[in-house]
Task: inverse folding
């Protein structure tokens, strides 16, 4: 199933990755206001997806948005801004697994970003990164998720549900990444 999800969503993944503010981490040009916006966009996207995934997968950790919230609080950015038209829903465990594939996989990309943060001189005043921390625990979470995904006994309809929800999750992240939020 992991292979199917990867193949079916590769083009979306690449498209969204290229548009994301995180590219400024990779080229080391990110400044503090842009970093704050990136964290806030990610916080909103992860909060909405993780909470919905947790509704259908009770053992799901749902902690990535909490790490982002710590980052934002550390940088004195409000997380209580009203967000309109940001609705994400899962309707079944299969859909939740499709969404979790995107969420868990993107955290792996966060490990690469963490390695590049140390080269972003305009972020030198940030003393600690909670989300982009480079912690090997992220890899453990990914491996644990892959086992859960492979253990789930998908029928054909559920496979399609998971694939479609993974695609919808990428598009949801893209929508949030294209929103501009006030940074206090």
Result:
């Amino acid at each position: 199933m992991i292979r199917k999800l990867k193949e079916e969503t590769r083009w979306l993944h690449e498209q969204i990755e290229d548009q994301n503010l995180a590219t400024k981490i990779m080229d080391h040009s990110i400044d503090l206001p842009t970093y704050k916006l990136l964290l806030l966009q990610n916080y909103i996207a992860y909060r909405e997806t993780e909470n919905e995934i947790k509704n259908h997968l009770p053992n799901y950790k749902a902690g990535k948005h909490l790490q982002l919230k710590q980052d934002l609080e550390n940088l004195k950015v409000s997380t209580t801004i009203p967000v309109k038209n940001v609705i994400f829903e899962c309707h079944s465990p299969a859909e939740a697994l499709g969404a979790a594939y995107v969420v868990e996989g993107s955290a792996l990309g966060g490990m690469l970003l963490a390695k590049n943060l140390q080269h972003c001189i305009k972020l030198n005043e940030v003393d600690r990164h909670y989300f982009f921390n480079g912690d090997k625990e992220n890899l453990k979470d990914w491996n644990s998720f892959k086992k859960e995904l492979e253990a789930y006994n998908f029928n054909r309809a559920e496979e399609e549900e998971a694939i479609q929800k993974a695609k919808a999750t990428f598009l949801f992240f893209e929508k949030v990444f294209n929103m501009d939020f006030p940074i206090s």
